[in-house]
């Protein structure tokens, strides 16, 4: 029989080969064989985080800390798991304790700085990281968070050299995700500093790192299947949950449409609670389809629905929204927003689960959206982001599907435009609040003052008053967005040369 150490070695080999499930089985076997082997608990915890099983990961990483209470590395692992679950206070405690145990430990400093960054405390994070940058004792993750701080503090000219140094020095040793994030951050720095050519080149390099391509044919076929088969007549025959909750508000649209801004405006209202970008609908779809999909696509298996299932899913969805809202300090909200923007793919299903809910559809200039997605890293597998042609396919499919749902579902839908919100905040905010059936709250106009326990790196802009620099941003990139214009049937910009064959 293999020893715990042998099982652990085998697990690591499978893990390195990308066979995560086999690795998890072997890590669990190693823990069972030797429950007091801290390395086994640590390795299993890290693999569980990669698999998205954060709760189980915390259990094993806490065990590793108990077995090795003076290990700064074990504390940082536990801090990373708490951070993944949004437990920022516990995460910060772990990182600070690790830094106390091991002085000048970049991982502990970087972890603590990231927590401050997620809380919008950019100056505090910057102060922690700067000494390591100045003496070039920074690690790539530490440099990444330093660059993010610089971006929000207007110090991009400091960040760009540090990023370039890490990318040049690490050569091929960086994990692909980390290299992509560093390169995208360099693209954002170049964009802010007024170098669109450099910014687009860096973003293109970043999007090529993972080497993934959008399965356009399969995606379009799935959309067309929904449009052809999910007719008003077929929809009316589907079972509907008996739930009467009018709490849910679905914020839908393409990625980077402005949903984070809309949620921040609405959640500044005393009776509206935010839950962020939940994965609730994806969990429901995965259960109905028997497992996860490698990319985001519409739900097509309406035959799987039954009265028992839709009522169970309604209870799960609404109760989880309430639980998340309560964790944010909202005890009795009248409305709760769900900012999973790709819920537009599941509106037929969600209409059966939460028939008393509401939908706010946020639209934005597709050229600005594509440029923003191109320069943003996502946890969600939006594979169409990596190439403008793929974005064009996904965008046209999204428009077709949203137009289809309008004639099928009973959920009321309000359409708002990001550009209108920027130019007329009060008018658009009042319209949204009225649509939700609530009295006006002037706090919506000072949304950036509303505290949030957690704000993702990509959406830190909501912590500032309305700004106009994201409207028409594509005008600095006309030569690069010209192929997208053509693919979407938009007229060419005046004075822009026609796109060349093969141009991204």
Q: What oligomeric state best describes the polypeptide chains here? A: single chain
**Count of all domains:** 3
Helix content: 55-70%
Rg on CA atoms, Å: 24 Å
**Total number of beta strands:** 5
CATH topological fold name of the largest domain: Rossmann fold
Order of helices and strands: HHHHHHHHHHHHHHEHEHHEHEHHEHHH
Overall form = globular
CATH class of the largest domain: Alpha Beta
CATH architecture identity of the largest domain? 3-Layer(aba) Sandwich
Q: Give the percentage of residues in beta strands.
A: under 5%
Biggest sheet: strand arrangement: 2-3-1-4-5
CATH superfamily of the largest domain: P-loop containing nucleotide triphosphate hydrolases
Largest sheet: 5 strands, parallel
| Uncertain regions spanning at least 5 consecutive residues | 499-504
| Overall average pLDDT | 90
Total helix count? 23
- Termini gap: 55 Å
Features:
3 domains, Rossmann fold, Serine Threonine Protein Phosphatase 5, Tetratricopeptide repeat, mainly alpha, 23 helices, 5 strands, 504 residues, 5-stranded parallel β-sheet, disordered C terminus
């Amino acid at each position: 029989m293999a020893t715990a150490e042998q099982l652990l070695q085998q697990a690591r080999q499978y893990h390195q080969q990308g066979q995560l499930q086999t690795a998890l089985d072997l890590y669990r076997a190693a823990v069972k064989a030797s429950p007091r082997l801290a390395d086994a608990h640590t390795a299993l915890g890290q693999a569980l985080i990669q698999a998205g099983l954060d709760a189980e990961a915390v259990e094993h990483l806490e065990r590793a800390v108990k077995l090795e209470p003076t290990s700064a590395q074990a504390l940082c692992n536990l801090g990373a798991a708490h951070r993944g679950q949004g437990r920022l206070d516990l995460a910060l405690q772990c990182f600070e304790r690790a830094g106390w145990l091991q002085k000048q430990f970049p991982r502990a400093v970087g972890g603590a700085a990231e927590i401050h960054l997620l809380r919008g405390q950019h100056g505090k994070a910057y102060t922690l990281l700067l000494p390591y940058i100045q003496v070039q004792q920074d690690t790539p993750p530490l440099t990444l968070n330093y660059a993010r701080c610089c971006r929000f503090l207007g110090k991009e000219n400091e960040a760009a050299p540090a990023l370039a140094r890490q990318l040049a020095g690490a050569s091929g040793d960086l994990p692909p995700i980390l290299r992509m994030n560093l390169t995208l951050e360099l693209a954002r720095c170049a964009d802010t500093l007024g170098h669109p050519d450099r910014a687009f080149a860096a973003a293109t390099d970043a999007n090529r790192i993972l080497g993934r391509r959008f399965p356009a044919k399969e995606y379009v076929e799935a959309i067309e299947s929904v449009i052809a088969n999910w007719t008003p007549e077929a929809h009316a025959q589907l079972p509907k949950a008996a739930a009467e909750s009018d709490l849910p508000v679905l914020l839908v649209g393409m990625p980077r449409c402005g949903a984070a801004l809309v949620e921040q405006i609405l959640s500044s209202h005393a009776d509206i609670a935010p839950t962020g970008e939940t994965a609730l609908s994806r969990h429901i779809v995965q259960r109905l389809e028997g497992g996860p999909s490698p990319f985001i696509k519409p739900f097509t298996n309406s035959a799987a629905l039954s009265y028992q299932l839709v009522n169970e899913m309604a209870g799960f969805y609404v109760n989880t929204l309430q639980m998340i809202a309560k964790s944010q300090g909202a005890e009795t909200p009248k409305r709760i927003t769900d900012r999973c923007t790709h819920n537009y793919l599941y509106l037929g299903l969600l209409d059966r689960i939460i028939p008393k809910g509401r939908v706010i559809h946020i639209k934005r200039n597709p050229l600005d959206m594509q440029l923003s997605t191109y320069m943003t890293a996502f946890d969600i597998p939006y594979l169409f982001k990596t190439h403008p042609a793929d974005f064009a396919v996904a965008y046209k499919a999204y428009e077709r599907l949203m137009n289809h749902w309008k004639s099928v579902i009973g959920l009321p839908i309000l359409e708002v435009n990001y550009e209108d919100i920027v130019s007329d905040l009060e008018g658009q905010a009042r319209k949204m609040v009225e649509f939700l059936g609530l009295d006006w709250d002037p706090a919506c106009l000072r949304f950036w003052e509303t505290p949030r326990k957690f704000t993702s790196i990509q959406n830190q802009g909501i912590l500032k008053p309305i700004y106009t620099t994201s409207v028409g941003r594509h005008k600095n990139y006309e030569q690069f967005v010209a192929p997208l214009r053509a693919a979407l049937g938009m007229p060419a910009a005046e004075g822009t040369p026609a796109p060349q064959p093969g141009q991204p």
